[in-house]
Amino acid sequence: MIAYIKGTLDHKGLDQAVVEAAGVGYRILTSLGTLQELPEPGSVVKILTHYHVREDAALLYGFLTRDELNVFELLITVSGVGPKAALSILSSMPPAKFSMAVIAGDAKALSRAQGVGLKTAQRIIIELGDKLKKEHAGLKTSHTPLPDNAPAYQASAAAEAISALVVLGYSQSDASMAVGSVYQDGMSLETLIMKALRGLSAV
User: Fold this and answer.
1) Pick the CATH number of 152-202 from 3.40.50.300, 1.10.8.10, 1.10.1740.10, 2.40.160.40
2) Which of 3, 44, 68, 77 has a CA-to-CA distance to 132 between 20 and 30 Å?
3) Which CATH architecture does the domain made up of 4-63 adopt?
4) How far apart are CA 171 and CA 123, in angstroms?
5) For residues 125 and 169, which has the higher predicted lDDT (pLDDT)?
6) Backbone phi, then psi, for 131, in 5-degree steps?
7) Quick one: which of 111, 95, 99 has its CA closest to 190?
8) Is the sign of the CA dihedral 104, 173, 200, 192 positive or negative?
9) How far is the C-alpha of 155 from the C-alpha of 116, rounded, in Å?
10) Tens digit of pLDDT for each residue in 16-34?
């Protein structure tokens, strides 16, 4: 209903911002990441929004980036996950790391968000895992270098792992080297990503 709001930032709170547009002040609930990136009050901002209606309230949630908005809207499709939990997860990790945690099946990382238990984290992985894997599979290109020891039937997993690491901000060469150094026959995509990340973190 409301795709975005563009106006003057009136003030920022702990979990919300107020933007004045056409003489109306809009209270927008948001993540810690967006709050940290917002400029000083008095600046003109454009916030992408999600209009959420429930029995007792109609609320606006908003983010500076399309990635955050997409993850938020994806999270609230999971049974038992509401806007509050979705904001908590986005406040604990950026969208790219959220995607990697789901793909790698890292429930502990997701459960570090305030108010998100291990069972909820596991449900998120179950309900969103396949969808996010397909999205990341679409990121790989024919130019993605693969480990020399990767058999043809597992080349796609190696390419997906490399593409996933690139999304996280690693260079193509570093990602390729990390995947190549841990690759073993029969290794799943989730294990490949987790082992490659450990290697990159140790550097």
Assistant:
1) 1.10.8.10
2) 3
3) Beta Barrel (2.40)
4) 32
5) 125
6) -65, -45
7) 99
8) positive
9) 35
10) 999 999 999 999 999 999 9
C-alpha dihedral sign at 90, 167, 185, 154 = positive
Angle at 97 between CA 95 and CA 103, to 5 degrees: 105
Domain 74-131 is in which class?
A: mainly alpha
Domain with CATH 2.40.50.140 in the chain: 4-63
Contacts of 18 (CB under 8 A, 6+ apart): 9, 10, 11, 25, 26, 27, 28
**Confidence class of residue 140 from pLDDT cuts 50, 70 and 90?**
very low
- What does the pLDDT read at residue 156? 61
DSSP string, 11-45: EE-SSEEEEEETTEEEEEE--HHHHHHS--TTSEE
What are the structure tokens assigned to 135, written together?
Answer: 């999205």
